[in-house]
Amino acid sequence: LQHDRATHYxxxxxxxxxxxxxxxxxxxxxxxxxxxxxxEELPPVFQAEVRKELPLLISEAEPTGHREE
Length: 69
Known about the structure:
Elements: H1 9-35, H2 44-53
């Protein structure tokens, strides 16, 4: 995840939330395939197994410089 120094915090958080939502969908699909239940319905030990297979990896790069347009 990389942003410009002029990026509004709200926009940055919106993009981050979309990335998290995508992971939530992947975890839910995997949980249903493996256990026949949604991710949220699983006990913590099974949730951990799903996350182990599909770890949340979001890298935050240094912001780029502000560009005047």
